[in-house]
């Protein structure tokens, strides 16, 4: 993950994780992250969009993820929960991001921040969600 959007996703997952764990104010979390990462080596606008829009869509995202989870979303590891929500948001609201990119980025984030085998779980859930949300992009469905 080297691009500016990839870095924005990485920081957004960390910020979302913090928000999930503390219930902190999104603007305060936003400012803290921007202060720590003021080098501009990431897509700041995309980071802000992810951080501020995902919490407002939590119930929609969780409802779309639920059929593909083996447990309630509240029992999913908090890091993986943040990653799943971010990727679900991209799959549902960012059609310009190819589904394979959204899934690959999420898997890489899970390898970096998640539990040892967490990336496999993330991949499986998102693959099934993508089949529902992005049917037109799937091989053999055009």
Describe the overall structure:
67% of the residues lie in helices and 0% in strands. It is mainly α and 142 residues long. It has one domain (4-134): NusB-like (N-utilizing Substance Protein B Homolog, Chain A). α6 packs antiparallel against α7. The longest helix is centred in the first third of the chain and has 19 residues, at 4-22. The chain is globular.
Element-level helix/strand string: HHHHHHH
CATH class, please?
Answer: Mainly Alpha
The third-level CATH topology is N-utilizing Substance Protein B Homolog, Chain A
Radius of gyration: 14 Å
Beta-strand percent range: under 5%
Q: CATH H level: which superfamily?
A: NusB-like
Please report the number of helical segments.
7
**How many individual domains?**
1
Biggest sheet, open or closed, and with what strands and sense?
A: none
General form: globular
In helices, the fraction of residues equals 55-70%
CATH architecture: Orthogonal Bundle
Query: Uncertain regions: pLDDT < 50 for 5+ in a row?
Result: none
Secondary-structure-based class equals: mainly alpha
Comma- or semicolon-separated keywords:
N-utilizing Substance Protein B Homolog, Chain A, 0% strand, mainly alpha, 142 residues, single chain
What's the helix and strand layout?
Layout: H1 4-22, H2 26-36, H3 44-53, H4 58-65, H5 78-93, H6 99-113, H7 118-133
Helix pairs in contact: 1-2, 1-3, 1-5, 2-3, 4-5, 5-6, 5-7, 6-7
Offer a quick outline of the entry.
The protein is an all-alpha fold and 142 residues long.
């Amino acid at each position: 993950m080297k691009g500016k959007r990839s870095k924005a996703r990485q920081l957004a997952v960390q910020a979302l994780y913090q928000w999930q764990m503390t219930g902190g104010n999104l603007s305060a979390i936003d400012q803290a992250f921007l202060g720590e990462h003021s080098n501009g080596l990431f897509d700041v606008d995309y980071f802000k969009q992810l951080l501020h829009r995902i919490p407002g869509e939590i119930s929609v995202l969780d409802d779309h993820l639920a059929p593909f989870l083996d447990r309630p979303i509240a029992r999913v590891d908090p890091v993986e929960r943040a990653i799943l929500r971010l990727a679900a948001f991209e799959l549902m609201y960012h059609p310009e991001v190819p589904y394979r990119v959204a899934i690959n980025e999420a898997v890489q984030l899970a390898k970096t921040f998640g539990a040892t085998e967490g990336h496999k779980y993330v991949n499986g859930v998102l693959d099934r969600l993508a089949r529902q949300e992005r049917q037109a992009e799937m091989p053999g469905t055009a």
